[in-house]
Design a protein that fits this description.
The protein is α+β, with helices and mostly antiparallel strands. The chain is built from 2 helices and 7 strands, in the order ααβββββββ. The chain has a 4-stranded antiparallel β-sheet, with no helix packed on it. Strands 1-2-3 form a 3-stranded antiparallel β-sheet, with no helix packed on it.
Length: about 180
């Protein structure tokens, strides 16, 4: 151990002294930086004193509430709702294809087994088999006829006056 220490001690002393001699350029750079005049720091800006603000619009109309305009009785027209007897059957269970809009569905083919079946693809890529009497689309569309090229159905849509009307529609094979 002593022999090992005798060998490494001179090497250690030599390396420490060698590092000290090469610091002359570093000492000159530090002296040059310290010789510069000190830079000035801008003073802290003066803050304006707090000014009290009193909200004076509390008695005005709340913008988040709807505006109700009182119209004379002669101008106000009541809508007369004509009950034509058309309304959707809301008591039946909805079928799988009634949760999609018609633009999302596509007719991919037909199948004939005792009855004519239409093969409809949903947006997820699932193929559904439907026949006359099944429902399709978001407007209670009941399938009326199925051919090789299209599926015809009758929808029950709101008429804008609180009632419903029937509207015929089709889904065709897309190429």
């Amino acid at each position: 151990m002593v022999k090992l220490l005798k060998v490494f001690m001179p090497i250690l002393i030599l390396s420490i002294t060698a590092c000290q001699q090469e610091k002359d350029d570093l000492n000159a750079y530090v002296a040059k930086i310290e010789a510069r005049p000190p830079s000035t720091i801008a003073p802290i800006p003066v803050l304006k004193p707090y000014e009290k603000f009193e909200y004076a619009a509390s008695d005005l109309h709340n913008p988040f509430l709807p505006v109700v305009v009182d119209l004379p009785d002669a101008i106000v027209e009541e809508k007369i709702i004509v009950d034509n007897g058309v309304r959707p059957d809301t008591n039946r269970l909805k079928e799988a294809l009634e949760e999609y809009g018609l633009a999302e569905l596509s007719l991919v083919g037909t199948l004939e087994q005792e009855n004519m079946w239409a093969l409809i693809r949903s947006p997820e890529g699932v193929i559904h088999r439907v026949q006359v009497g099944n429902y399709i689309g978001k407007h209670y569309g009941q399938i009326l006829t199925i051919s090789d090229a299209e599926v015809a159905f009758k929808e029950t849509v709101p008429d804008g006056n609180g009632g419903y009307i029937h509207r015929n529609n089709i889904i065709s094979v897309r190429e």
